[in-house]
Amino acid sequence: MQYRRFGRTELSMPVFSCGGMRYQFKWQRVPLAEIPEACQRNLEATINRAVELGITHIETARGYGTSELQLGQILPKLPRNQLIVQTKVTPQGQPQEFRQAIEQSLETLGLDFIDLLGLHGINTDEILDHCLRPDGYLEVAQHLRAAGKVRFIGFSTHGSTETIVRAIATHQFDYVNLHWYYINQQNWPAIAAATAADMGVFIISPTNKGGLLDQPSQKLMDLCAPLSPIQFNDLFCLSHPQVHTLSVGAACPGDFDDHLKILGLLPQASEILPPILHRLQQAACESLGEEWYKTWQVGLPSATETPQGINIPVILWLWNLATAYDLVDYAKMRYNLLSNGSHWFPGAQAEGVETLDLAPCLAHSPHGAKIPAILAAAHQLLGNQTVKRLSES
Fold this sequence. Notes:
- By secondary structure, the protein is an alpha/beta fold.
- 39% of the residues lie in helices and 11% in strands.
- The protein has helices spanning 37-52, 67-71, 95-109, 125-132, 137-146, 161-169, 188-196, 218-224, 229-238, 257-260, 269-288, 290-295, 312-325, 328-335, 371-382, and strands spanning 3-5, 12-14, 16-19, 57-59, 84-89, 114-120, 150-156, 175-178, 200-203, 245-248.
- It starts with a strand and ends in an 11-residue tail after the last helix.
- Pfam families: Aldo_ket_red.
């Protein structure tokens, strides 16, 4: 395993973390007695495998169903001073309820303290403001840190780059969990801001949210060869020293194996990556047209500026991925969270776009005349499924 300094926390962070949202029994909390023995054995085998590999960062969340409860059966048996444990708690309800939720997580995990506490889901300016206000959620976390129950405080986010940068600029957080990978690099300014603030940078779900790379299209596999798509994406992310760790959402002990193969390749990343990057860009230009590929994002309105709240930037992004790399299943999964994902995935689908006048909101786009037809085609290809966030399944 390789390790990187996790910003001002000074923690020695493994470049792969063991994410805790896929090996648990259920997304709903149930008593320990209802958890099948085989499921618990699998979770414990996965954690033991991670620790054997030097993956000392175990990450979970209060919202991950039975994850904390199941981890609480094994974490107390492991050498505490060799682990970095992170859990995340959603800032909601009254501040005292938030404190009680954190203390319940500690009890459930069977630990006296957690190394990293994440305020889970700072996705909007409004949520950030609620965290920052006097006697707010951040102050609760700071009190728990002073009491020795929390070592470092960070936040996780699915929000806009602007909201993430604003949160970083408060200088109140030690680290950030955010999305950034090859197919979605828009949060780079947030990573740059976090680096300037000497914060730890944790990449959320690069395999799943990075394109369902554990079940890639044949086209993507061909373009990424000789690496697998997982290996390419890992190498791409970790070739940037500003990125400290990638979450591996392991469902079983073997899920680490493909990721581990890139550790020895990191010194050669500058030689390995350029040919693959060139093929990916060339394939996108051939499928989408070079002008569209280079300028499709210019002048697009936000969902709040669009009739019926249609999330034009996200829909066009998903259309591009489906068209250029045959990532249709991924695009469908993400598209159908629109209108269903609240502030975790804001904006609406393009249903009924043919009846809307989008000319005013697309006035600054060089492609304004053809975007409505693309939105309609995207809805026909990707829509008509009901998809919820995993925690709501």
